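Final report, closing paragraph on structural work. Over the funding period we assembled a curated collection of sequence-structure pairs, and we close with a single example.
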Amino acid sequence: MSREKSELIEIAEKFEIEGKLENVVPHGNGHINDTYLLTCRTETGKENRYILQRMNHEVFKDPKGLMENVTAVTAFLQKKIKENGGEVEREALNVIPLREGGSYREEEDGTFWRVYRFVEGADSFDVVNRPEDFYESAVAFGHFQKLLEDYPAETLHETIPDFHNTIDRLHKFKKAVEEDAMGRASEVGEEIRFVLDREEDCHVLCDMLASGEIPLRVTHNDTKLNNIMLDKKTGKGICVIDLDTVMPGSALYDYGDSIRFGANTGAEDEKDLSKISCDLELFELYTKGFIEGCGGSLTEKEIRLLPMGAKLMTLECGIRFLTDYLEGDHYFKIHRPEHNLDRTRTQFAMVKDMEDKWPEMTGIVERYL
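Its predicted structure, as stored:
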């Protein structure tokens, strides 16, 4: 535990938690924020649990804007869920306010803290162990899009500016190649050429958003399986969590990143590239679930572009890994000297496999139009 228990209790009790705080323990295995599980008990013996988090203000430079996004989006979701007869306390994140008012607390040491109600009777998983879980995550992320289709996305703050701006990512990559700060560019000529050969692809979604060909939507931007709470009894996805990267963008970002992560047959840093491919069964399963979850909120153009979303998010991730490698591995945490290069190659192998399977991928999407 990165802080003394007494400090954590003191911070937690500044929020409107119900009951006497009995225990504080580290929770989960996230890499960005420090997360703790609070257990409280009321005088009647009822147990209430909450999540206490220290927000990482080095990654998220604008905690105020971030929490404005979170509180506005969760309030909107709760209203929609209530109208639909759902369980507000389980189907959306519930921000617990400070006793003095406000949604987060800045401590004297410059750290920022918040509290959520714990989602009871549900689990999250880091990897796809069962295809059904991947499908349920697709339905849940699609439903997230459906619930927020009327939300004015342009009013949200960009918590990480230009996060999925592939044109900007390409520009930064070219700058890293030109400056070659670590003298590594000559070693990765094949990877550099791979990106430059797909320069036009990097413009597709950005240009369509700018022209209005595809709509600006509220996007989650971290659509991994572990950001869905799955009901322990039914296995259904009930709640989308970790809204720190909720921003304006394209639904294709969320869909594409899920395919990049969940339909890959190998690990993100696999050295044996023969193990890397896009699993078409998982691709179809996720596509089916996502479109169902969206419940008619996607345009025909967006649906037809789903394979491009998958390819572009994978290409973008590879570009980011390669850029970091060229600049000296200062952004992504590495565990071996060429870790970011291995990650780059897996992403590019996945892109190439998608290109080889393009007729099958587009055919799958056509079936769900």
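The mean pLDDT is 95. The radius of gyration is 21 Å. We thank the funder for supporting this effort.
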